[in-house]
Amino acid sequence: MAARYRGVRTVEYDGKRVTYASDGEMAAALADLNRQIAGATERISVVRIQSSKGL
């Protein structure tokens, strides 16, 4: 996202380089990644605690 805000179209990470044709293409790639991240996270809605004194 920092590269997009700076207007950079070529990003290099971990020895790999990706060049986007346009800002729209980069925006679409970022939106897809955000959707994948949102789908991978699971929210816990109920937490149950059980304890005992060992008696």
Question: What is the structure about, briefly put?
Answer:
The protein is an alpha+beta fold and 55 residues long. It has helices spanning 2-6, 23-40; strands at 10-13, 16-19. The chain has one domain (2-40).
Describe the secondary-structure layout.
Layout: H1 2-6, E1 10-13, E2 16-19, H2 23-40
Antiparallel strand pairs: 1-2
Report on the architecture of this protein.
This protein is an alpha+beta fold. It has one domain. It is 42% helix and 15% strand. The protein has 2 helices and 2 strands; from the N terminus they run H-E-E-H. A hairpin with a 2-residue loop joins strand 1 and strand 2. The longest helix is centred in the middle third of the chain and has 18 residues. The chain is elongated.
Domains, number: 1
Could you describe the largest sheet, including whether it forms a barrel? 2 strands, antiparallel
Helix content: 40-55%
Could you say which overall geometry the principal axes of the C-alpha atoms support?
Answer: elongated
Along the chain, the helix and strand elements come as: HEEH
Secondary structure: number of strands: 2
